[in-house]
Amino acid sequence: MTTSRNGGKQNVTISLSRQLLKKAKILAARHETSISGLLAKEIEFLVGDEEAYNRAERQARAILDKGFHMGGTIRAGRDELHER
User: Fold this and answer.
1) Is residue 28 a contact partner of residue 34, using CB atoms and an 8 Å limit?
2) What residue ranges do the domains of the chain occupy?
3) pLDDT, mean over the chain
4) pTM (two decimals)
5) How far apart are CA 73 and CA 44, in angstroms?
6) CB-based contacts of 25, cutoff 8 Å, min separation 6
7) DSSP assignment of 10-53
8) How far apart are alpha carbons 67 and 47 in whole angstroms?
């Protein structure tokens, strides 16, 4: 992995089969970008999706930890509830 001078980005080397590489080149051409551009966009999407999921999970847990008021009132005391 080498550091490039283009905005703090780094180059990454991957290994693909010849068949997959050929298909990736065609796909990149259809999207008017490079294989590198395709990979960068997909990784950005995956990372963003993961961050959104983690954020939603934290928010849901905070809501559950806070609890819900269901509108009722408890009229019996603890001892009355647990009489045998």
Assistant:
1) yes
2) 2-67
3) 88
4) 0.60
5) 49
6) 35
7) EE------HHHHHHHHHHHHHTTS-HHHHHHHHHHHHHHHHHHH
8) 30
